[in-house]
Design brief:
Layout (H helix, E strand, L loop, with lengths): L13 H15 L4 E6 L9 E8 L7 E6 L14 H15 L6 E5 L9 E5 L18 H4 L2 H21 L16 H17 L6 H12 L8 E4 L8 E4 L2 E5 L6 E4 H21 L11 H12 L6 H25 L16 H9 L5
Antiparallel strand pairs: 1-2, 2-3, 3-5, 4-5, 6-9, 7-8
Helix pairs in contact: 4-8, 5-9, 6-9, 6-10, 7-9, 9-10
Organism: Streptomyces aureus
Pfam family, one: APH
Protein name: Phosphotransferase family protein
């Protein structure tokens, strides 16, 4: 799938973090101890997750998960990590929609205890479609499921996105609006331009990403639509499932105020990203799963809103993902895991599909 080794995710010492966590917890809940502290194998390269249990006569919950802002010394994926923003978003989504958002327990804004701000939430048991190797590959629970089971999971997933979009008044999500002037979509795209500029600062730029921004301008929607609370990283790999029903909606660090289609485009493209990789590897993948037309149809049934300008929004999702992939690659360069090639576009794992989308030759 990739020629480079899997990038490191942290420079922190897990044992030191566990010791400091126990000290912090004893202040928040006298007599408590953090035990069975572990780092999940699926830990990403952005905010970090720690799992632990609370040992106490009367704990608020027994099993916990902690989301810790990225280690500043580890060449972070994003310029900043606003943990209070994530904490507030999760509470708002849970209170307004009834979605299975993990119950948040404590927010710590002081970087002193663990070296960066963090929050603690209740840990939810279940199973998550894997990213490595992707769920589109053979040998995992979702790939082995029946078509009917996957359809059930797909409908339930689109349903929770619909509930989020319909359930939170936009006025209560204004704190998620990108800075600047103009519409929510304009500001969202400009924030991505700023992110790209940060990624390539002092490094080779990506002609492909810049051409994708140009293509976006050509496809700009005539009617952008009203903004809603977007989950931001709306994909099945960020959901814990109980059987084939969502049990917990995770990873809110990319939440935003934007048109509905921003989330839907991300859901569509992130599956296509894995499906394309799988087909390139010689496997069939799951071509009948999470198809764009099916997602659009189900979403329209649930909300009364027919998704529009999805060519624009699918391209935008691929572009946003490309910027993240480029940052991940430059992070590998920083840690001397890979070298910068003559063509920096090849650092983007899905450069071929993004180029096809820019050229208008990528299937829907």
């Amino acid at each position: 799938m990739a020629t480079a080794p899997r990038p490191r995710t942290s420079t922190r010492d897990p044992e030191e973090v566990a010791r400091r966590l126990t000290s912090w917890l004893a202040v928040r809940l006298p007599g408590a101890e953090a035990v069975n502290v572990s780092v999940p194998e699926s830990n990403g390269m952005s905010s970090e997750t720690l799992l632990f249990d609370i040992e106490h006569p009367e704990p608020p919950v027994r099993a916990c998960a902690l989301r810790l802002a990225a280690d500043p010394s580890a060449y972070t994926i994003f310029p900043e990590y606003d943990m209070p923003r994530q904490y507030r978003t999760m509470r708002l989504a849970a209170e307004r929609t009834g979605l299975p958002v993990p119950r948040v327990l404590w927010l710590e804004e002081d970087p002193g205890p663990l070296g960066a701000p963090f929050f603690v939430m209740e840990r939810v048991e279940g199973r998550v479609p894997p990213d490595v190797m992707p769920y589109t590959y053979e040998g995992n629970w979702l790939h082995s499921a029946t078509d009917a089971e996957r359809a059930r999971l797909q409908d339930a997933t689109v349903g929770l996105i619909a509930r989020l979009h319909d359930g939170v008044p936009a006025s209560e999500a204004e704190f998620l609006a990108a800075p600047g002037q103009g519409s929510a979509l304009r500001r969202h795209v400009e924030a991505q331009r700023a992110y790209y500029a940060w990624v390539v600062d002092g490094l080779p730029p990506s002609p492909l990403i810049e051409s994708a921004f140009d293509r976006l301008a050509e496809l700009w929607p005539a009617d952008e639509g009203e903004p809603v609370l977007n989950w931001g990283d709306a994909r099945i790999g960020n959901i814990i499932y109980d059987g084939f029903e969502p049990a917990a909606v995770l990873d809110w660090e990319m939440a935003a105020l934007a048109p509905r289609e921003v989330d839907l485009g991300w859901t569509v493209y992130l599956h296509r990203f894995f499906q394309d990789l799988t087909e390139n590897f010689g496997q069939a993948g799951l071509p009948g799963f999470l198809r764009r037309a099916d997602i659009e149809r189900r979403y329209a049934q649930l909300t009364g809103h027919t998704p529009r300008d999805m060519d624009f929004h699918t391209l935008y999702a691929a572009l946003r993902h490309a910027i993240v992939m480029l940052r991940v690659a430059y992070r590998q360069v920083y840690f001397k895991e890979v070298a910068v090639p003559d063509d920096p576009d090849t650092l983007i794992l899905h450069h071929a599909s993004l180029r096809a989308m820019v050229q208008g030759s990528y299937g829907s």
